[in-house]
Amino acid sequence: MLSERRLQVLRAIVQDYVGTEEPVGSKALTERHTLGVSPATVRNDMAALEDEGYIAQPHTSAGRIPTDKGYRLFVDKLAEVKPMTAPERRAIQNFLDGAVDLDDVVARTVRLLAQLTRQVAVVQYPSLTRSTVRHVELLALAPARVMLVLITDTGRVEQRMVDCPVPFGETSLADLRARLNSRVAGRRFTDVPHLVEDLPDGFDIEDRGTVSTVLSTLLETLVEENEERLVIGGTANLTRFAHDFPLTIRPVLEALEEQVVMLRLLGETQNPGMTVRIGHENAHEGLNSTSIVSVGYGSGGEAVAKLGVVGPTRMDYPGTMGAVRAVARYVGQILAES
Q1: What single-letter DSSP state applies at residue 119?
Q2: Are 289 and 272 within 8 A, CB to CB?
Q3: Per residue, what are the HEC states of 161-220?
Q4: Planar angle of CA 50, 51, 53, nearest 5 degrees
Q5: What is the three-class DSSP state of 316?
Q6: Each residue's pLDDT tens digit, 267-297
Q7: With contact defined as beta carbons under 8 Å apart, do 140 and 161 qualify?
Q8: Handedness of CA 130, 131, 132, 133 (dihedral sign)
Q9: How big is the chain by its Cα radius of gyration, in Å?
Q10: Is the separation of the CB atoms in 293 and 309 below 8 Å?
């Protein structure tokens, strides 16, 4: 365990390096921070921090920079996440309040996160498997053709065409719609299959085939494999930090293109709270020079997906974590009200 004084020195090194992009020396630390000790003591503390792997000397200069281990301790010991200012909070709310549907919410969230943090923003679409059914609508398009519209508690809307084996009357369709919603509205998607398995038995024999066809389409919609998807924005922000990446940013760009990689990194933890993965904590080699800050979002206090940012390990962690948390909270409110 580091002493409080050495932890204070580490905090100062991280803050200065993030702010100046230059390796930090003991003289600069004592000039810019009220550490309450002599430069010689600070040099001794820095030597101890280096011995324990929290900081490193990038080249022969006197300055030091934080390592992944140093950033990790800095984040773990953060006294508080930097709160958003009142104007920033109003800007977030005004920007997101204009969204017209879920796709617009996700698109606006990506743009907003990228602008606030000046990093790469990543937003996962709400997962159907963690959602509940708000309503199922059935619309007659032709005597033997029906449109099924599934609306989730997150505002996600899925539409499917159903070709019925025989013509299905408007009265029968209204009856199916009412019975179906009485069973599944407000219920988790994972519960739906057993809730509707005996539904066809309550209909006349000549209608059971059509009811079964509609239910099959509904169940296929619930388990579609392509439901897990991401929207990524602000990739151009990486060019501002080109010198933070060894040799090239190409591995980072390639990793960002692989949605399965990003989904796995966002979804590795079921904890909906704030997650910060630093440098080599990211299992994908292409992201070893980055940090990923993510948090769950959703309505009713339950996370249905995650959002976050990807940037160099030299990032403003308190500010980034504050922005990510604030945006997630507003997105959750919008989903709850939609």
Answers
A1: S
A2: no
A3: EEECCCCCCHHHHHHHHHHHHHHHCCCEHHHHHHHHCCHHHHCCHHHHHHHHHHHHHHHH
A4: 65
A5: coil
A6: 754 567 889 999 999 988 889 999 999 999 9
A7: no
A8: negative
A9: 26
A10: yes
